[in-house]
Predict the 3D structure of the following.
Amino acid sequence: QVQLVESGGGLVQPGGSLRLFCAASRATLDSYAIGWFRQAPGKEREGVSCINTRGRSTYYADSVKGRFSISRDNAKNTVYLQMTSLKPEDTAVYYCATGCNRDQATNWGQGTQVTVSS
């Protein structure tokens, strides 16, 4: 069973950038589509982005299109989420999981906090 660990979160000013990492252990990532999700206080967890097994197909929520970029390096067993032009409304705990559908995704990581504030 693959285990996922997120990292790279932190405090950043509006307009800033962060790069999130989703690293796998216990199994290789190359047979899984990987999704990034986020949950803000008082809100439901929502899908942010997703990438297929070979990285040739990606999905972005409308709220992050043009600002976020997902990629993967299967040799390093890692999926990345590059976030630019960050806004206060991007503040949330960010999770990665195997699968692109929030209700069907599994192997959730523990999450990494992203706070966008001046």
About this structure: The longest strand covers residues 18-25. The chain is about 0% helix and 45% strand. The chain has a mean pLDDT of 96.
